[in-house]
Design brief:
With 227 residues, the chain is of the alpha+beta class. The chain folds into 2 domains: 77 residues, no CATH class; 137 residues, no CATH class. Helix content is 21%, strand content 30%. It is built from 6 helices and 11 strands. The strands form 2 sheets. It has a 6-stranded antiparallel beta sheet.
Length: 227
């Protein structure tokens, strides 16, 4: 066990969600829960509260290949422990997939997706993928469309109709997504990427601890141009 002086800062990457009658997981936020820190690898990690980590105390739980247990490897009797979502947004170039009419009216188009950077999926292959949740399409119209309110409305309706048929969940290799968070590819909330290859950013200010709650917050932010 590391000494207190050798330890990293306590940065929550997991959470204990209690059991409360009448309250579902998506209704919990960080004020209802206990923030935790997992020290270790996917195969094995020790899980600490902030107080235990800072004082050199013992772990409250252990992680074994993504599952959490008490330190003696028995089941957690009440509530549950899970990784805390690391919520990110990526904007992928998708103009080429749209019909010719939409392409003629736009300069750039991106599919916007939310993902949990801590969740990795292996879909019958060695290379891990991220699970992408579709939010909407964002685009830059041509100068001609920008000056014509009627054409702008037509274009917006066509894209909204296309978005309704989009797959709600898709998967992309982590190696293809990670470069979007690097310098030069990173973009800002509410803006299109500067790169034609797309970009991404970490979503700040999320309070939810479950993915259902996260997506509710994402769509609230979307209404305020925060995505």
């Amino acid at each position: 066990m590391l000494t207190v002086a050798e330890r990293k800062p306590f940065i929550p990457n997991a959470v204990y969600i209690p059991t409360k009658d009448g309250k579902e997981g998506r209704d919990f936020d960080r004020s209802d829960c206990t923030m935790l820190f997992v020290e270790g690898e996917y195969s094995y990690g020790e899980v600490y509260t902030a107080e235990a980590w800072k004082s050199g105390g013992s772990p409250s739980y252990v992680q074994r290949r993504g599952d959490f247990f008490l330190p003696d490897d028995t089941e957690i009797p009440v509530g549950r422990v899970q990784l805390l979502p690391d919520v990110c947004v990526v904007k992928l170039p998708e103009r080429e997939y749209w019909c010719e009419e939409v392409q003629k009216l736009t300069k750039r188009m991106y599919g916007v997706y939310a993902l949990d950077r801590r969740q990795h999926f292996h879909l019958c292959e060695m290379c891990a993928s991220y699970e992408l949740y579709f939010i909407e399409s964002q685009y830059e119209e041509t100068d001609e469309v920008a000056e014509d309110e009627h054409k702008r409305e037509e274009l917006n309706e066509a894209i909204l109709e296309g978005d309704r048929d989009a797959e709600p969940v898709s998967y992309m290799h982590i190696k293809d997504i990670e470069p979007m968070f690097a310098r030069g590819r990173r973009c800002r909330p509410g803006w299109l990427p500067k790169s034609d290859r797309g970009g991404g950013f970490r979503l700040r200010g999320v309070r939810a601890v479950t993915w259902e709650g996260v997506m509710e917050e994402v769509f609230e932010m979307l209404c305020n141009s925060g995505i």
